[in-house]
Amino acid sequence: MNPYHTRLRRVQDAMAHAGIDLMYLNYGPDMTYVSGIVAPLYYYIMKSPGDWITGLIISLDRPPVLVLQKAFAVNVTTQTWIDDIRIMPDTSDPDRFLADVLHEFAPAGKTIALGKMVWAQTALSLRAAAPDARFIAATNTFMDQIRVIKDPDEIALMQKAAEITDIALTETVARMRIGMTERDVAIELDYQMRRHGGDGPSFYPGIICVGNGSDPQRHIFTRNTDMILAAGTSVAFDYGTLYQGYCSDFGRSVFMGEPHPEALAAYRSITTNAQKLFETMGDGRTTPLQICNHMAELMTADGFGEYYMVYGLGHSIGLEVHEEPWLKPPYDEPIREGMIFTIEPKVWKPGVFYVRCEDVVLVGADRGTPLTRSTYEPIVITT
Q: What are the Cα distances from residue 17, in Å, to 20, 31, 71, 142, 146?
């Protein structure tokens, strides 16, 4: 069976359960999930007349309809299984064109859910076309619950993204030297992801150097600067690869010269304890909140409770880097086979060290399996 048909049925079932009659999704992860179409780069910069009408209309009882401004119709039939594609002629009034398509669904009195990233101009156009309809948001929680269990095709794409991510680390580390800057490493990392088949980073990547007298006021969200990677520092990697719409999210730490003893001990703690978590991540065996609490207990037992970042342990991942559920309160429903999470414990002692380890982990019948497979042994750069 076409996996997109199954995904569409999941969306329609969720709509029916929530009392939603119609759904309108513009370019983004939710449209990709149902249609297979990945937003073209020029969608965000083109600013063509009528660009705001582009979207996918889903109902409960008929095939979806794809509405496109002409500039976005290039090669579209090779990207999607959807047959009903309406392309706005150059001479059409965009709002009128969108209204005419929407009216085929008899929207008066119906509940219409809009994807959370729908443009304001799109929402206004739809509202004008259906003044008697009730409009609500298709929230993160609503859509992420539909997408949370990955099908085999999605898992295969995420495995490929993970493989590229692992290779990029190996190739970047091989080129690291004491005296380089965070920015140097970030540029090399981006190059290696693309060189080995990635479509680009899945989010703004981070190279974060801490230690050897670094500024204790600097936050770890400050990254990729001209700071020198000096001997005695730890360098945390926080990055991911985008591959055919799907994301990885990954991390390891590298030590420049002789590692700070406490930093090395903290790194061994997070890598060892992360692997212990994988063993618990079987179908129905635990919950996100229980995973969070378990890791906190392990880190406290190792003596790092004060600096362990307890509510930054991880999240679901797929077409977006951050999806629900998160590994923190209040998410306390059992995890299920086919879910994919990041496990990313980190210990931050400001000005002294920051170490992190992150993997993308597939929930299986009995345990979790990391899709990213880079070494957990400390990586030390000596020259």
A: 8, 20, 36, 11, 12
pTM of the model: 0.95
The whole-angstrom separation of Cα 170 and Cα 157 is: 20
3-state secondary structure of 78: helix
Nearest of 133, 119, 121, 148 to residue 22 by alpha carbon: 133
Dist CA 176 CA 192 (whole Å): 13
Residues in CB range of 167: below 8 A, 6 or more apart = 192, 196
With b for 16 or more beta-carbon neighbours within 10 A and e for fewer, the 274-313 pattern comes to: beebbeebbbebbbbbbbbbbbbebbeebebeebbbeebb
User: Cα(372)–Cα(163) distance, rounded to whole angstroms?
Assistant: 6
Measuring CA to CA, how many Å separate 364 from each of 187, 217, 293, 325? 35, 41, 21, 17
Distance in angstroms (rounded) separating the CA atoms of residues 141 and 306: 31
Peptide bond into 259 cis (omega under 30): no
Strands 253-256, 22-25: pairing kind: unpaired
- Joined together, the tokens standing for residue 281 give 């991540």
Tokens of 131: 């003044």
| pLDDT, tens digit (0-9, with 9 covering 90-100), for 189-246 | 999 999 999 999 999 999 999 998 889 999 999 999 999 999 999 999 999 999 999 9
Quick one: tokens of 318? Answer: 């797929």
The answer to whether the CB of 286 falls within 8 A of the CB of 323 is: no
The pair phi, psi for residue 302, each rounded to 5°, is: -85, -5
- Report which of 280, 274, 231, 234 is spatially closest to residue 253, judged by C-alpha positions: 234
Specify the length of the chain in residues: 383
**pLDDT tens column, 112-137:** 999 988 999 999 999 999 999 999 99
CA atoms of 90 and 69, how far apart (whole Å): 9
Are the C-beta atoms of 366 and 323 separated by less than 8 Å? Answer: no
